[in-house]
């Protein structure tokens, strides 16, 4: 790896623009996330939070600007449009840096918890079954599911399924983990067990975490930095005690006030 790649931030958006039709979702968006930082993104529905994460997963492209992950540019410019880089090897390499967990758990219903976690490393990292399953078992123990290895998704609670989903993303050994409202679909009593797993991952300082949430308790528990996003712009950012308890921007204040009333 070159010196620039190791010195580069985990995530960099530079003047990134993204539209869907006439809707400008990201507007000359800038954000640098140093390696190991835990960044929480808050903001109203439709402000572009999921789009940000989907761009980092190379599920969406941008029209202009630049996006980098661990020093690799996510997009190549040709025909005046930014597209995912050509060449499957490079795309796979970039995707290998990033893991993502969604609000809906998206586990494979016909596979056990163990198979759900082991299948990625077997296919993408060419691990043997024995090796992949041993690692999957260790990961499932780590998220507190050592007794559920053979259980199928339908036999697990929402909190347990989400912990399997986190283990599955971690099995590919990402440097950057993206979490999109992963506790939003859970019954309140199940949020804590998922948050505990995320806190444990956060204490492992090498992992860069980018967490989108509507739950300020989740934000406080995890964030080194909170970013408030509105209409595809970063309106305010800072440590959680500043942004959540003493916001400077009137839009941030309004948003937090409305959340408190909800
Ligand atoms: N695939 C898509 N096609 C068209 N519009 C989209 C698509 N994905 C998102 N949008 C629009 O982009 C805006 C931002 O969406 P999103 O990133 O999902 O916001 P958030 O996650 O903050 O709620 C919204 O106006 C949404 O309707
Ligand atoms: Mg969203």
Automatic annotation (TrEMBL):
Domain of life: Bacteria
Keywords noted in UniProt: Amino-acid transport, ATP-binding, Cell membrane, Membrane, Nucleotide-binding, Transport
One GO MF term attached to the UniProt entry: ABC-type amino acid transporter activity
PROSITE patterns xrefs: ABC_TRANSPORTER_1, ABC_TRANSPORTER_2
InterPro entries found in the cross-reference section: AAA+_ATPase, ABC_ATPase_HisP-typ, ABC_transporter-like_ATP-bd, ABC_transporter-like_CS, MetN_ABC_transporter-like, P-loop_NTPase
Domain ABC transporter: 11-256
Compartment(s) of residence: Cell membrane
GO CC aspect terms: plasma membrane
Signal peptide from the UniProt entry: none
One Pfam entry name: ABC_tran
Protein's membrane topology: Peripheral membrane protein
Family note: Belongs to the ABC transporter superfamily.
Protein name from the UniProt record: Amino acid ABC transporter ATP-binding protein
Native organism taxonomy: Bacteria, Pseudomonadati, Pseudomonadota, Alphaproteobacteria, Hyphomicrobiales
